Every structure is written in structure tokens, then in C-alpha cells.
């Protein structure tokens, strides 16, 4: 059988993606104990470039946070964010009035559409032990017909997300049908909402010293990338691949993966390409530069509805559990 590996590439930050995806980033931070105010109980006076703390060799980063790590309010337009928090917590606030605290495997799916502002902060809730954060954020493009849809906020709670247990593997089905298991419905205007587009986001964990077979896609048009982000060496089609590599796969073949001496952790991003021009400027994604200029002007004039929260790096009460407050006032607590 022909080797299913089309290409391999080292993972940088952000990860290289293929259409219909725009961007993906993996955060693994071993934050220290909290200081009682949801910040780190360590000095930030030395060795930190606060406001732009992205040192890849550091044990943990503040990102754009000044006192609490995370990303204070910023705009998005023309695409979707899928945020998966396997460890730790994320506090969300946005210009729609929506808010939430999610973690422990929860996923937030947000359609930016015609424009939204949001903040994503990582409160350090534990003061007696480390606060590990493991988070993926994936940007999924919107087609031209969906660039200006109304913004949409949705929570996929870990308890509801299908987790398939096979002989040597666990597969978390965030988006896209895996074998005969369907995911929670994605946001309604998403490219993933049409099953013909075969959008898949699967977080896969395979036992050490074992084998796993990734089932083929239905269509040869699908772009399929396997991100090997943690583990020991693996073998596909006789080819040795080290961790921290992306693997572009032939979608028409089942892929047998031989696992090395450590549990292997993968993320699959798959989907039919939108195949439209992409114009990007920071957090704005359109089809033309003229549209980018129009969106930037709209943001200057409207601030995408403004910021209804008391702080740009808004966080929720420390003792608050997981919850979602929707723009219509509906409250869900976990």
C-alpha cells in the first residue's frame, strides 16, 4: 500500500494549517500556585515581557496579561474560534454580553461573523498547587456567504462531547462524525454545519507500544493534517516521525500508526477546502483587502458593540464554577 504520508513539517507556534483552517495554537503552561487574586504567586518584575510574553522556553507565559495570564479584549471578524481546554480554566467575556468559565475538557465554539470582541483569561484558581493549563485554539474560516453572519457563542460541555474508547485509544469527537459517532452540532453558520464538508476536529490519545488505525475520509477532496504534539516516536508507512511534527495525510487511505514507548497525543484537523481568496489583517479575515479596510473602519466606528465589562482582562469570581451566560440572558451552570 502506498505511504499515506504526503508531507511532514515541524510544529511552530502557531501550527501550520490547511484550508478550511486558518490557524491553530497549542498552549501548555505549568503555571505556579495562585496568589489569591488569580494571578501567579511568583514575581513578574524580572524576565517577563508583560503584554507580549511568548517566550517558548519558559515554563509558563503571561501572554498579553499584566496581572492574570491570558488575552484581554480584542476583536475578531470573518471566521470562527474553537477553543478546547483540557486542563485548567478559561474565563470568557465578550461584546455580546456573553460570558463563561470553562475547562476540564470543555470546548467553546464562537462564530465571530460580522464582528465581536472577546477576552480569554486564564485564572489561577488553586493557591496550594500548580495550575496547569492545556489549551488548543483553532481558527476555522467562514465562506464568503458567511463572513457577515451574526456572531454566535456556544459551549460544548465535556460531559456531552462524545469520547470513544477503542482497544488502545481514546478519541474526543469535537467536530465531524467518527465512524458512526456523531458530534454535538457545531455553530449554525459554520462550514462544519454541512456534513458534506467533512470538517473534523478529533483529539486522539493512543497507548504506548500499541497500534492505532485512523479511518479514511469519505472524499478525496478533504485536507487532512495529523498534529503529533506529545509522545515518543511513531511510525506511519514505515516512516519514523518524531513528536512536535505535523503530518499531511492522504484522506483516501486508512492510516496505521505504530506508537513508541510513550502515550501519543494527536490533534486531527480535517475538512473540504473553502477554496476562496483569503485576505487577513491580524484578527480580521475577509476575501479581499477592500473588505479588510471596510471591516477595520467598522470596528473603529462601532467597536463591534463596545465592551460591557468592567476590565479589559475581565475574570469572574474566584469561587465560581463552570458556567455559560448567553447573550439572551440564559445561564447554564455546571
Can you offer a commentary on this structure?
It holds the Pfam family Pirin. This is Pirin family protein. Residues 202-305 form the Pirin C-terminal domain. The chain has one helix and 24 strands. The chain has 334 residues and is mostly beta strands. The termini are far apart. A seven-stranded antiparallel β-sheet has the order 1-18-15-20-13-12-11, with no helix packed on it. A six-stranded antiparallel β-sheet has the order 3-8-5-6-23-24, with no helix packed on it. The protein has one helix at residues 289-302, and strands at 5-10, 21-31, 70-76, 79-87, 89-94, 99-103, 107-111, 116-121, 131-141, 152-156, 163-165, 169-175, 200-206, 211-214, 223-230, 234-236, 239-241, 245-249, 255-259, 264-271, 279-281, 284-286, 323-325, 331-333. The radius of gyration is 20 Å and the shape is globular.
Give a summary of the structure in a few sentences:
With 334 residues, this protein is mainly β. Helices cover 4% and strands 41% of the residues. A hairpin with a 2-residue loop joins β16 (234-236) and β17 (239-241).
